[in-house]
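Allow me, if you will, to draw on your knowledge of protein folds for a short while. Thank you for your consideration; the sequence and its tokens are set out here:
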Amino acid sequence: PELAGDAAARGAPLEGWSAGCASGEEPYTLALLWQLGVGPAFPAVALHMLATDADETMLRRAEANEYPESALRDLPGPWREEGFTTQGGVYRLRARFLQPVTLRRHDVREPPPGGPFDLVLCRNVAFTYFELDLQRDVASRLAACLRPGGALVLGRRETLPEGSRGFSPWSAALPVWRRDQPAFRSA
């Protein structure tokens, strides 16, 4: 809600990036959460989610939008009913929830695919599998593409590498980091 409030104050959409989106569960869940949870409190704010992955096979799975029931087990029942159709045990997200999500091939080791973003999700990719120097490089790139005050969400067991600049912890309990505001300079 705080990020949505900032976007509303700017008169702009809420821009998000799911880096390493795999088969789409994360960005589609955010689209569902936005439309059924947060978004109604901010009717003038649209959500735009860029969902990227380096693996073309995973992107094709995200485009196919077909999920087993087990992929929806943690989703509240009313959201499952409103958000999905089902046929033969396969769940498909309804078109209105697909609309805010743009899928694109991108490797998080490359320069960011746009920005500035209000929200970046980089879960269980860079800060789990990459060596420390590459983690620092990715952290720096993410800081550069995040709007000041924006949020970076990592995986539950991840943290930014020591020496990462531009972020402060947003939550003591969750791996969410806030992009620092630039220091004010007087003339």
